[in-house]
Amino acid sequence: MQPFALNYARPAAQCETGAPYVYDSGLQLNVLLDGRIAACDMALLRELGTTTSTAGSKTHFDD
């Protein structure tokens, strides 16, 4: 028996471009290419909505 939700589940859409931030293991935060903390960039947050960490689980957020 297949759960109801699996009839409608779709893979997450892949972003055409890479994220404008990278994970800094020392700070344990996503940082912009110029070194600023990504979660503090309001323009980035308005555009993307969040800065999901790619260091481990996709359920952890930096903001």
Task: Pick out its properties.
single chain, elongated, 63 residues, two-stranded antiparallel sheet, alpha+beta
Give a short summary of the structure.
The chain has about 60 residues and is α+β, with helices and mostly antiparallel strands.
Overview of this structure, please?
With 63 residues, the chain is α+β, with helices and mostly antiparallel strands. It is 11% helix and 13% strand. It has a two-stranded antiparallel ribbon with strand order 1-2. Strand 1 and strand 2 (29-32) form a beta hairpin. The radius of gyration is 15 Å and the shape is elongated. It starts with 20 loop residues before the first strand and ends in a 15-residue tail after the last helix. The relative contact order is 0.16. The mean pLDDT is 74.
Return Rg in Å.
15 Å
Distance between the termini: 39 Å
Q: Strand content of the residues, in percent?
A: 5-15%
Strand order of the biggest β-sheet: 1-2
Number of helices: 1
Query: Topology as H/E string?
Result: EEH
Q: How many strands in all?
A: 2
Q: Roughly what is the average pLDDT, rounded to an integer?
A: 74
Determine the fraction of residues in helical runs and give it as a percent range.
Answer: 10-25%
Class from secondary-structure proportions = alpha+beta
pLDDT < 50 runs, ≥5 residues: none
Query: What general outline do the C-alpha atoms trace?
Result: elongated
The major β-sheet equals: 2 strands, antiparallel
Topology:
Blueprint: E1 21-24, E2 29-32, H1 42-48
Antiparallel strand pairs: 1-2
